[in-house]
Amino acid sequence: MELSEGRKKVVVFDYGFGNVRSAERALARAGADVEITRDFDTAMNADGLLVPGVGAFAACMRGLKEARGDWIIGRRLSGGRPVMGICVGMQILFARGIEHGVETEGLDEWPGAVEPLQAAVVPHMGWNTVDAPADSRLFAGLAPDARFYFVHSYAVQDWSLEVHNPALSAPRVTWSTHGKPFVAAVENGALWGTQFHPEKSGDAGAQLLTNWIGTL
Fold it and tell me: Which residue numbers delimit the Glutamine amidotransferase domain (predicted)?
C-alpha cells in the first residue's frame, strides 16, 4: 500500500472479530492511511496496529492465535511499535478473561482479569463519561465531560500494575463507572487500549484517534 505523503500507515488487524470497516473509516477520517489485513509482514511494518474485538473473550483469543496475532502483537511491543486494542481487543491484552465461570488465558501484557460487570443493568450499552489522568495523551484536548460509546458486559475492575523503576513511565489508566468503576482506557508505552468504541463515539472518538495517530 502506497502511503500518502505525511500520513501514517495503520493496519486494522482482521482476525474475524470486530467491526473492521467502521474502524477503517474512523481512522481514515482521523488522518491515517489504513489497511485491513491479517498479513504478517504488513501488520509488522505498519506505523500503528489497531486490534478490534467484538464477542466472547475466549473466541477472540482463538481467532487471534489462529491469525498469529498474538505473535505479531508481542513482536511489535518488544520493538516499541505501537499497538492499540478496542473493546474485547483491549480486554485480551490482560492476563485472563472469566466468562460464565470459565477462565481463558489472555495475552498477559497487563495483569488483571476481565470479569462480569457488577451493575443493575448489564450490558453497559450507551454513552458514558470517563475520568482520565491530567497528563493523558490519548484524551488530550477533550473536555472532562466528553462522552464515549460503550457496549460490554465484562471489564477489568482492578488495576494492579505498578512501576517502581523511576526511569519508566507509569501507565496512565482512565476509569469509567457502571455499577462500580472499571478500566476504560490504558496508555502504557507503545501499548494503548480503550474499552469503549472510539469509532462510534462521534467527535470525541475522532479526536482520540487523531491523538493516537499523532504519537505514531
Answer: 11-211
